[in-house]
Amino acid sequence: MSSGLLMTRRIRRTPYTAKVEAAGVRGFTVVNHMLLPKAFQPSLEDDYWHLREHVQLWDVSTQRQVEIKGADAAKLCQWMTPRNLSNAKPGDCLYVPLIDENAGMVNDPVLLKLANDHFWLSIADSDVLLWTKGLALGKGFEVSIGEPDVSPLAVQGPKAENLLATLFGENIRKLRFFKFGWFEFEGTKQLIARSGYSKQGGFEIYLNGSHLGEKLWDTVWDAGLEFNIRPGCPNLIERIEAGLYSYGNEFTFDNNPLECGLGTYCELDGDFDFIGKSALKKIADQGPARQMRGVVYGAEKLPGVAIPLSVLVEAKTVGQITSGAWSPRLKRNIGTSMIDAGYWNVGQPVIVVDAAGQKHDGEVIKLPVS
Ligand code: THG
Hints:
The chain is an alpha+beta fold. Helix content is about 20%, strand content about 30%. The chain is built from 8 helices and 21 strands. The chain is globular and about 65 Å long. The protein starts with 16 loop residues before the first helix and ends in a 5-residue tail after the last strand. Bound molecules: (6S)-5,6,7,8-tetrahydrofolate (THG). The site of (6S)-5,6,7,8-tetrahydrofolate has 16 residues, from β5.
């Protein structure tokens, strides 16, 4: 099986792709029809340890923004999610499940409230732009919807704050988790949030203006040298241990937010309406049929999970590992799986069948791993 991608215009490059290539990227995946680096030198485990100790620069332009502006923008956003948005203020980021009429997951973006009538949905891998336009047209909402020229560059790891303070000043330290502010870069105002797809701390610079991409990459890179900066990308091991899920891998339209562990972001008894509300209430009344869990399995490093691995209890299939990696801290493979009711308790012994048909002892664990 060839791992090379046929690069065409449909697979969009980012403002940082040339820099990422020069930095020695070892391959890409495609998210939102756009390149996402998948690895640098020398190994996933080495990148994992580096991310936990230093600072990395990630091209996460694939986190595209769906911009919703206009008189009905707040109404439309609330219509799309079971999370109560009524207390959100400009400067807030909120992690929001988006669901369809059956309460199936459409996406799990970060919502940014720029103003009372202006929002960005920073999306995972599904075509939210089309969904949003369809809903707005169907409802006759007064909004304009588009994809702005915004390309997030993530600076992740424990040294990210000290690094960004050298570039953007001490005010960067005052940003709290999941808040954003505006900072000067090359005579422009740029949005920077304390957020990112790791639990090692860090920021995301939502660069507005592709023409500034290479300049921004170089500027952060040069200032990062004294902090031992490296090019990186969302790290599979770290994100599984952190319980950060990936739309299309851990869940799809076939899953509802309650089984995805996103129940804390769903308000079912609020005095606001959202698409899928009655379906979600019904599921809540019955109780979810399965739940997202971690699974540790095997005592030796197994290959990456290209095809889901069956999770068995005795001879019964109770789940499917959809993402898995060797955890150098736990010294076991660790994966995520939906696990059927009756089997999802922490400590439940399971058998995991690998791609070669070999069976490995495992057990259900809680994520995140501390
Ligand atoms: N950053 C931005 N956009 C994104 C992602 C990101 N879009 C796609 C994808 N990642 C969306 N998925 C997640 C999943 C988890 C989190 C963010 C995006 C996350 N959650 C916090 C946590 O688990 O601690 C909780 C946030 C909250 O309390 O509201 O960070 O990474 N821009």
